[in-house]
Amino acid sequence: MSAELSAATDTLNAAIRDSEQALAALNLGVTASVDLYPEETSEEVWMQYLRFGKDATGWRLLLESGYEFDSGSWSVSPLLNASKEVRLKAVEKFPALLDKLIETAEEHLELVKKRVAEATTFTKKIKGAK
Fold this sequence. Notes:
This protein has 130 residues and is α+β, with helices and mostly antiparallel strands. 52% of the residues lie in helices and 22% in strands.
């Protein structure tokens, strides 16, 4: 049983790595997060988010954890370093994370287009003032 569980966990880790690489290959260039446990509430809310974002090694699946109202309690670590239980929960959230990444990329695209238009208008005003 132990060897079988170990092999299954290795397979899980490989699947997470493959998902991470597939997300990075999309080249969206945006960060997005989804709440791993949105249904849980209490006075001192411990929160965990699955995030796809950039760290020192590149674009990765990350785990953000901390108390809701204590910014000093937050930490970020690679998802692959999380407990098996957290990794299993995170995989359930992969589709929601992809949706959030696409939504964020679309929002960024619209904002970039708007800012390009503003910069172009600004430049035309300067050139027209000569």
